[in-house]
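Dear support,

I submitted the protein below through the web form. The confirmation email said the job was done, but the results page showed an empty box. After a refresh the structure appeared. I'm attaching both so you can tell me whether what I see now is the final result or a partial one.
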Amino acid sequence: MQQATQLIEQYYQAFNNGDMDTFLSLLTDDVVHDINQGDREQGKEAFTKFMQRMNHHYREQLENIVVMANADGSRAAAEFVVLGEYLNTDEGLPEAKGQTYRLPAGAFFDIRDGKVARVTNYYNLGDWIEQVDPQ
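What the results page shows now:
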């Protein structure tokens, strides 16, 4: 359990530091990524491309991170707040104008051989849209 918790804490520390090499090194080669309200992708290459796209469109930092793990360390979850800035318009979403947002979010993980084998992210897309494009 402690190793799983430390792995997820390291994962988010690397994310917050913008250290994509470390961040990606914590994934299995066949990692499964369930994108919030989107598709399921598989493999580190697909995850890397996803992160490149995300880093182009958004600048984000996570705070108030709470990590939980099951007894055998095979699964974990995290809850946190995303502090972000919308940098470049993402296809199908409102126009980016440097808007900032604060969004509660969570993630669920499968862990295998000391690495993240699955990550499922969740946040309320409607809340995000309301923050960046209030009508």
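Response: this is the final, complete result; the empty box was a page-load delay. The domain at 2-132 is CATH 3.10.450.50 (Nuclear Transport Factor 2; Chain: A,).
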